[in-house]
Design goal:
Layout (H helix, E strand, L loop, with lengths): L1 E3 L9 E7 L6 E5 L7 E2 L1 E3 L2 E11 L2 E9 L2 E3 L6 E4 L2 E8 L22 H8 L19 H17 L15 E2 L4 H11 L3 E6 L4 E7 H13 L6 H5 L3 H7 L4 H6 L17 H10 L4 E6 L9 E7 H12 L20 E2 L20 H10 L4 E5 L5 E6 L22 H7 L16 E2 L5 H8 L6 E5 L6 E6 H8 L3
Parallel strand pairs: 11-12, 19-20
Antiparallel strand pairs: 1-2, 2-6, 3-4, 3-7, 5-6, 7-8, 7-10, 9-10, 12-13, 14-15, 16-21, 17-18, 20-21
Helix pairs in contact: 4-10, 9-12
Amino acid sequence: MYHPGMNYSREGLIPTQFVWPYGGRHVYISGSFTGWTQWPMTPVEGCPTVFQTICSLTPGYHQYKFVVDGEWRHDERQPFINSNFGTVNTILLSRESDYIPQLLSPQLPPSGPVSSMEVDEAFQNVVRLSDGTSPEPFPKISDADLEMSRHRITVFLSTHLAYELLPESGKVIALDVELPVKQAFHILYEQGIPMAPLWDFSKGKFVGVLSALDFILIMRELRSNGSNLTEEELDTHTISAWKQAKSYLNNQIAGQGGAASRQLVQAGPDDSLKEVALKILQNSVATVPIIHSPSADASNPNLLHLASLSGILKCICRFFKHSPSSLPVLQSPICSLPLGTWVPKIGEPNRKPLALLRPNASLSAALNLLIQEQVSSIPIVDDNDSLLDVYSRSDITSLAKDKVYSHINIEGTTIHQALQYRDDPFSAYGYNNQRCFMCLRSDPLHKVLERLSQPGVRRIIIVEAGSKHVEGIISLGDVFRFLVDI
């Protein structure tokens, strides 16, 4: 994206702002005006996923690309062409006699965090082709192209193995079932992980998973019995004791849409990616441990990886990256696809409303809704249903900071207050620290898939440009049920 500056310099150059609003750790711009060398871009204050820089350009035609974490990228929302440098973005800066400052002077908020959607809105008036027209809308996909896309993805998932999900290096943390719940609570928080497999030394095998949902249930159950969640109480409850005590809650949890106690869902490295995805979807779990047993009797198992839908989606994106034409569905705008959950329009019957909460709602209401709706996060909106933040299941681990859990009242604490306790528990081990993952209804599917393939991202919130009015939500489960037609 670009924004020509308001004034020419003495040499006749035009200060021009370039923006990359799609995230990354290190972003550079390279173009005809830099001699195709890489110039660094800096994050916008308050929004680390939006990068910008200002270059002084001569009036005329220019080409440019972005380098994001070592990968050459172009902004598909801006005019682009194929050239000797591959696919590049283009801009045409007017001569002084043609310059119209008022049309090219978006007003950004004077203070406070800047989101990528606010940048999109601020610069949407300058997204024009060089001839002054708007980009052509995406064509609607045909049934034949949709089925072809699904078939090719299904073939890929069926012919590639879970072994391909394993990173070249890394570690997987497992917890002893005899560990005190309090200590486990702190470990998840300190290690920046939302869940961990459970190892039973007496049985010599992995027996389950401890997740943020367990802590939500612990807090809710103890509060419902009128007791306070103290360190002493947590010290007397091992993970094993909690899992056993949880059995009496199964009927209540199942009635509210929660997951009842069951055997560990796991997969082997030789299982297909499709089998792993089906296990995740059919059992309503976030991850499946990839476990290898070197002996026939399944003794001495090795925990290799925690497989997730985002990891599988990343494999899909990587495989089809250089042949996007083989999947026509990727170019379709998400609003034209039977995908996700959308806010019901006036007059639409039998449409389930989205789970939304106001910041003054209680933390207890948020925890109950996470369980009842079987969702990983809930958008927090203002009175106009404009997105303010997101509260996720994994945010419960932030209460381990400074032992907040020992004295917090979940009925009297608002979501706004609970969000103040949250820092960035997922900043370590590759998790993304951005909370509000957003897209527009006009975004092509491939852009949504790229965002969902990032570790720790499970839902994308569809918002209206500028107002950030929530229009819908797309989850990882939605994507796989649509692409694989499950």
